[in-house]
Design goal:
Helix content is 0%, strand content 52%. A hairpin with a 4-residue loop joins strand 9 and strand 10. The strands form two sheets. Strands 2, 4, 5, 6, 9, 10 and 11 form a seven-stranded mixed β-sheet that branches. The chain has a four-stranded antiparallel β-sheet with strand order 1-3-8-7, with no helix packed on it. By secondary structure, the chain is mainly beta. The mean pLDDT is 94.
Length: 113
């Protein structure tokens, strides 16, 4: 099993930036694919970005060019750098680990117009 703890959410004005972190423990982090999902009120939880153990990435069309996912295997941490934030990015952001299907507790991101 893998335990995940997110941090870095908050309140920001449109056009601003935030960096989310997800610290993992309990498994061999370096071999696990990781992802960031988000869920807005009344909507389903959707994939934002994912990264494989070798660093290959993919992004939702809505965040391409604005968000960057990265990982530091030495620190067992995955990051989501979010730039040019828009009000529609407002959601709870969750970290996800693919091998065991583990979720973090989520961190709120609120973007004001």
């Amino acid at each position: 099993q893998v335990q995940l703890v997110e941090s870095g959410g908050g309140f920001v004005q449109a056009g601003g930036s935030l960096r989310l972190s997800c610290a993992a423990s309990g498994s061999i982090f370096s071999i696990n694919a990781m992802g960031w999902f988000r869920q807005a009120p009344g909507k389903q939880r959707d994939l934002v970005a994912a990264i494989t153990s070798t660093g290959s990435t993919n992004y939702a069309d809505s965040v391409k060019g604005r968000f960057t996912i990265s990982r530091d295997n030495a620190k067992n941490t995955v990051y989501l750098q979010m730039n040019s934030l828009k009000p529609e990015d407002t959601a709870v952001y969750y970290c996800y680990e693919y091998q065991f299907g583990s979720w973090g507790q989520g961190t709120q991101v609120t973007v004001s117009s």
